[in-house]
């Protein structure tokens, strides 16, 4: 049965027929339905105000209809014994379905939304009940209930008992879930309060020792200060005609390291780009970078291997880490490596890495395999960020591997 403003989705009949076909014990099958509010003038769909998709419950139709006509599919035999009552112009479908449910016909619910019940109005619609109230339909409900009462027999009370029992079980379940959720909420509130207290304690501690950064960044700096204050890492940074904005980001990522046990070995490979030279000049005047800086400007361009080897010669720390002139170090990069080296005297350490665009947005994350010498024979899966003992690189990098200079030592 279809009204002029009803909508059936393409799979509607296929879904219902698939459920009822070959199962003669099923008399009526129905699916879920969206109740959609539409503007009366241009018939534009505004919003879904309700979804009618309830599983079958014996007795539920005795207190109200939750199944639109066009969501139903009947066997033809149903209409041999039951018809619509012509005395009902309003809620005739509810009265009809209530009689079917009292006749012990078998209803089956297909848990799928396959149709729409569209409501057109000049005013904003908030609910399905509101529509019936505005149209004055609710006054007709008493007539349907009177008809249902006339048809009730003692055996029908089993359906009502089932419905009441089901509702009581649902209430008990919801009460139990509410109690559990309340306990969880109280526990979370307590954890949140403890977290705020801890956060305040850490903030006060950071401020007391001169750390201005807040949150995780401040905590990372605080942890960094608990480590031995030695120069543990020599950062090898060859530069050639790098775009100023990119080079500033690279240098800033070094400057902002939570762990301060580093020195910067920076070699300018004879850059002739003015903006690059200006940034490199500013580095030598930066109060944080300058005190940890070993700087060399080459007279002639020698390539990345020559520049890196010059930087390695200036290194004094026990570990060397390579940094390209367009790389960004995570704030906690050196801290993570320093903490690892507190546990064991490693020869080489490497981390996962991430490729980012010019705006800093992640493009790809490289989650690297565990140490695998065999894999290194055919691909440099390590790449950056890597730290290696300086003694391993005492002879420098091989000039004939320009562009892949860090692979052979690995």
Automatic annotation (TrEMBL):
Ranges for domain Glycosyltransferase 2-like: 234-369
Name of the protein: Glycosyl transferase family 2
Alphabetized UniProt keyword annotations: Transferase
InterPro entries associated with the record: Glyco_trans_2-like, Nucleotide-diphossugar_trans
EC numbers, comma separated: 2.-.-.-
UniProt entry tagged with the keyword Transferase: yes
Keyword Transferase on entry: yes
GO terms for MF: hexosyltransferase activity
Species of provenance: Candidatus Thiomargarita nelsonii
């Amino acid at each position: 049965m279809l009204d002029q403003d009803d909508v059936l989705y393409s799979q509607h009949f296929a879904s219902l027929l698939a459920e009822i076909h070959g199962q003669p014990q099923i008399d009526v099958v129905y699916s879920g339905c969206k109740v959609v509010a539409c503007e009366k003038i241009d018939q534009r769909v505004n919003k879904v105000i309700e979804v009618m998709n309830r599983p079958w419950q014996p007795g539920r139709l005795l207190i109200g209809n939750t199944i639109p006509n066009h969501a139903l599919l009947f066997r033809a035999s149903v209409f041999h014994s039951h018809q619509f009552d012509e005395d009902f112009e309003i809620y005739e479908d509810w009265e009809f379905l209530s009689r079917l449910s009292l006749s012990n016909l078998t209803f089956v619910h297909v848990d799928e939304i396959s149709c729409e019940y569209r409501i057109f109005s000049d005013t904003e619609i908030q609910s399905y009940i509101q529509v019936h109230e505005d149209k004055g339909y609710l006054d007709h409900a008493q007539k349907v209930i009177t008809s249902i009462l006339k048809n009730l027999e003692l055996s029908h009370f089993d359906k009502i008992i089932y419905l009441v029992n089901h509702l009581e079980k649902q209430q008990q379940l919801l009460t139990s879930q509410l109690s559990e959720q309340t306990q969880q909420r109280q526990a979370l509130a307590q954890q949140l309060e403890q977290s705020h207290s801890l956060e305040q304690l850490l903030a006060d501690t950071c401020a007391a020792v001169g750390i201005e950064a807040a949150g995780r960044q401040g905590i990372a700096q605080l942890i960094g200060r608990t480590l031995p204050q030695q120069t543990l890492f020599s950062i090898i940074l060859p530069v050639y005609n790098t775009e100023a904005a990119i080079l500033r980001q690279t240098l800033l990522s070094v400057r902002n390291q939570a762990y301060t046990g580093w020195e910067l070995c920076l070699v300018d490979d004879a850059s002739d780009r003015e903006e690059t030279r200006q940034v490199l000049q500013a580095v030598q005047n930066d109060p944080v970078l300058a005190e940890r800086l070993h700087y060399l400007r080459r007279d002639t361009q020698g390539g990345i291997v020559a520049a890196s080897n010059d930087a390695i010669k200036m290194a004094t720390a026990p570990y060397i880490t390579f940094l390209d002139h367009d790389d960004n170090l995570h704030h906690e990069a050196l801290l993570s490596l320093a903490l690892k080296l507190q546990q064991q005297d490693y020869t080489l350490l490497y981390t996962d890495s991430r490729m980012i665009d010019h705006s800093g947005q992640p493009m790809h994350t490289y989650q690297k395999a565990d140490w695998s010498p065999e894999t290194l024979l055919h691909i440099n899966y390590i790449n950056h960020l890597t730290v290696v003992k300086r003694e391993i690189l005492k002879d420098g990098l091989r000039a004939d591997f320009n562009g892949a200079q860090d692979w052979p030592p690995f």
